């Protein structure tokens, strides 16, 4: 599969997954800083928060991290079922899953703009739960694309790989560029999300929604173009036969 700008499907998918990694930084900054210290993309943070809360950290949130963890898993399970019969790489199911994520983010952006989600605990919990559901869907969909070293939602393993495979550690430095980019982009996404909170929660969500939409449209267009090229190449060969 060739693309007109990025050169190959693998490179295009890498760029798109890096964009979603940036988006994860945005939504996690919004959730943690704007909605009572809950992560909606990085579930490691929620597991740690819950462990500390159970050990007696009375000031730590429990309900929202627990709900976020449960809904993230639900989103991943739903995406896994949707994508179960699709092959590796981009597929119509990939487009459908990421379209649902994009639409959900846009709807959430409108919701937090109109509703007092920071003042009403029930509304705030609803937002973080739905956002975790969307991030679980996104993470499972990204995993299906099998872009090496890019998960879009966590960089601990990426940091480990960057260090342990580095030349300093006696390795070959495989994938160091994409690993470094993933780390930098999730950090920059968190910076952008934190900055957006100075304006409104809806701005951070709108930024994440815009990125998800751009990724979906770009990936789907490339997939359709590749399918059309493959069909055009197949038809003349069949005519010669």
- Determine the structural class based on helices, strands and strand pairing: mainly alpha
Main pleated-sheet profile: none
Mean pLDDT, nearest integer? 88
Poorly predicted spans: 1-5
The total of beta strands comes to 0
Helix content: over 70%
Shape: globular
- Termini Cα gap: 24 Å
Radius of gyration from the alpha-carbon trace, in angstroms? 19 Å
Strand content: under 5%
Helix-strand pattern, N to C?
HHHHHHHH
Number of helices: 8
What does this structure look like?
The protein is mainly α and 241 residues long. It is globular. The protein contains eight helices and no strands. InterPro entries: DUF1275 (IPR010699). The chain crosses the membrane at residues 12-35, 62-83, 95-116, 122-140, 180-197, 203-222. Keywords: Membrane, Transmembrane, Transmembrane helix.
Helix and strand arrangement:
Blueprint lengths: L8 H26 L8 H12 L8 H21 L8 H23 L6 H25 L10 H9 L11 H22 L3 H40 L1
Helix pairs in contact: 1-5, 1-7, 1-8, 2-3, 3-5, 4-5, 4-8, 6-7, 7-8
Q: What key attributes describe this structure?
A:
241 residues; mainly alpha; 74% helix; globular; disordered N terminus; DUF1275
Structure summary:
By secondary structure, the chain is mainly alpha-helical. The protein has helices at residues 9-34, 43-54, 63-83, 92-114, 121-145, 156-164, 176-197, 201-240.
